[in-house]
Design a protein that fits this description.
Layout (H helix, E strand, L loop, with lengths): L6 H26 L1 H9 L3 H17 L6 H24 L4 H21 L5 H21 L2 H9 L1
Helix pairs in contact: 1-4, 1-6, 2-3, 4-5, 5-6
């Protein structure tokens, strides 16, 4: 007979799914708004500002000093989504170690979100970064509830 999964475990997985979905939106927006992302990055870079002044966004976009933001976002998203899927599976299976890894993952998300808040990015990225921070805190809350602990102990 299969055990019932407590609400805190189900909610943990739901919030993890929300974090993945939010990350997907951020990845898509990185592609759609790549010029705005490049301009935000260039704001704190004197070399990029010089290229921008001389040849505009077209020349800056083609410059080798500009990081491949879209490629980085896609690779990071695919890796994170795969990790989240595997961790969620083990977590639902009652493996207690996944709670620590998911908590650390949420912590990294909160740190990355905090860095993005002060990176001269378009407003939509600031809002989504704040949302990632909130989702990470909520995930940690559900991961460490008493009924989650009991579930992980009894499976």
């Amino acid at each position: 007979m299969a055990r019932d999964v407590p609400g805190s475990v189900v909610n943990s997985v739901r919030v993890l799914g929300l974090i993945v979905a939010t990350s997907g939106v951020i990845t898509l927006l990185t592609w759609l708004m790549r010029d705005e992302v490049i301009l935000g990055w260039a704001e704190g870079n004197p070399s990029a500002q010089e290229i921008l002044a001389q040849g505009g966004i077209e020349q800056l976009r083609e410059s080798p000093i500009v990081p491949g933001f879209v490629a980085l976002a896609v690779v990071a998203f695919v890796g994170f989504a795969a990790l989240a899927l595997v961790l969620a599976s083990f977590f639902l299976g009652g493996h207690a170690w996944t709670r620590l890894v998911l908590t650390a993952t949420a912590g990294v998300g909160v740190l990355v979100g905090a860095v993005c808040l002060d990176s001269h990015l378009p407003t939509v990225f600031v809002v989504l970064s704040a949302l990632i921070i909130i989702e990470g805190v909520v995930l940690s809350f559900f991961l460490w509830r008493r009924d989650t602990t009991a579930y992980l102990r009894d499976v």
